[in-house]
TrEMBL record:
Protein name per UniProt: B30.2/SPRY domain-containing protein
Biased composition (Basic and acidic residues): 38-50
Top-level taxon in the UniProt lineage: Eukaryota
Entries under SUPFAM superfamilies matching the protein: Concanavalin A-like lectins/glucanases
Extent of Pro residues compositional bias: 24-36
Taxon lineage: Eukaryota, Sar, Rhizaria, Retaria, Foraminifera
Organism: Reticulomyxa filosa
Amino acid sequence: YLACSGVELYGEAVGGLVSLKANAPPPMAPVPPPVPKIAEEKSPEQKKNDAIPSGDSLPDDDAGAVRGAIPVVVSQQVGPELSGDAFSYSGDLDTQGVCYWLGTNCGTEAWQNPMKRGLVIVRSNGLMNDSVGVEAIVGHDVVRCVTKPVKQAWFEIDFQNYAILATHYTLRHYSSWDTEALRNWKLEVLTNIKCPLFFFFFDDNNDNHFCGSCDGEKWTTLREHKNDEALNLKGQTFTWSITAGGYFSRFRIFQFDKNSNNHYYLSLSGFEIYGHVLRQHPTLTWDQWPKSKSKSLNVDTAKNVVQNSGSNDQWQTCKTREPLVFGLDGLAEFSLLIEKMENTTNSWKFMAGIAPESFTCQNNKQWLGAQKSWGYIAGTGGKCYDVGKSLSYGEKWGARVGDCVTVIADAKNKTIEFLLNGVSQGKAFDNFDVSSGAMFAAVSLTATNSAIRLMSRVSPSSGPPQTVQRVVGSVASPTLSPRNPSPSMFHSINFGWDAVLKSQYLAIFPDGVSVTNKGSNDTWQGVVSQATFESGKHSFEIQVINDAKTSNTWKFIVGVVPTKFDPRKTAWVGSQNSWGYIGGNGGKCYQVGKLVQYGVQYGGNDVIKCEVNLDKNTIEFFVNGKSQGVAFDNLVGPVKPAVSLCGKGSCLRIANVI
């Protein structure tokens, strides 16, 4: 028997994933225990001349005087400048970099540290007791920010929902001394990460062991500096050019040898980066319906990533939940970023492109290029439409993490163009006809564990991410299918689940419209929508994302509740003067926990539509488009959509609220 009822770990920790609500400040870092102060060695000349006390930041009331003692050094010969949609370098720590732009909330507000905005996370191997916090790395002021003197010290800058094809980066030395400056370091990017695993086991002698295993993070060097003497004075800056070769979100300054004072302190007080930028697509998200997603694919809704969980190198395809929306110029655009790539026996590897609404991910030809879809092939650089043959087109891609394919669809001129890492491969197709119906962004994968993230290009003038549908001009927007609500519907706070009116063990996904039972021992958990129906005719759909096993034979309940309904008291729809349609047996209930025969059972991947008519006081339910008849004729408004779930892992999504 292995009997254990708890585990805890102690020590220093770095990294981790943080989920933040919009506009929420970053979580407070834990306060480290006091440790003996390790003093930096200083020459008599340094002690005599240095004007800034060790550990002090620049006081606001004396900022001008102190900064006057810090020389302004402009870097020379940092490489060619960029134009167009790039964040282009013009001078050290100017207002053209990505960190500054994020600090202004994408150019729309007064500057605030981007880490405090929750848009950037900075990590380190551990700081000195008298150092300011790691947020100073992306801050404005020249301050004392310094790590503990350990070998291989580092600072990491994590841009989270943004990825950068870097062309230049800037560093600034700290405020304390003219020494302890960087000499030997690398600018690295994270290209692979595997989670640590802790486990117990017994050996042959029946002795128990607690072990840890971590395949670790793989960091790739963008630029290595050996005995680089660019930084010499306190507060001094310098900028270097980079050839990145791909888009990355996590950057690290990694010191691999001693600094200018023959110590291992890593002293920095500023970081900026320039180049082309992507961010997580605000209006297109990967679908999870079987028709739109192959069975071996998993979707991470928080990061907008689709990953192959294992298909024996067979094609697996995923379409977006929302159709493409074309602007006044007739254009629609999206980008596909390789988050993870693995070996595969399929020489085509990945495919990026566009699929029509009729494209299904449930048959033998579920790869882009089949079923009248358009694809750009990674392994050959070719293209294909409605045929399993690669036609000569552009450069190969998909052999490395960070590759990005941007798809530009032109509904007016009926063309599709692909860009590889920002470079056009030319017009691939001239038969893109949207008159046949809605079109969807799509991707095909073969390798197990390979993953692709859905992104969009941004420029210094882009502004914050928008979650509403763009205005459509003369180019007709294809009709939306019932299972593909418009972006404005999906992200509207007017009908998403209410984060307050929900039971304890329910979790609402970042999209605001999907909800899951985290585990309630098969007891009811309920949640209420933010939408309110007061008069007239209304409807909404509930889509079963996951039908988990449960000992409760009712499984789900879909219905409407009065505005005073509180799922924190009784969580099943049908109580508290509410009206419900039961999934496990097809019954209905009102006021009492007893079913009355009504319609068919539902579950699996069914779509349940609820129509309410407050003029006639009726409620009617539909399952996959088929009416089950009028369920209730005693409706009293106002009411709100609501659902109840009991199985651990069960998941429902609300859509098409009208």
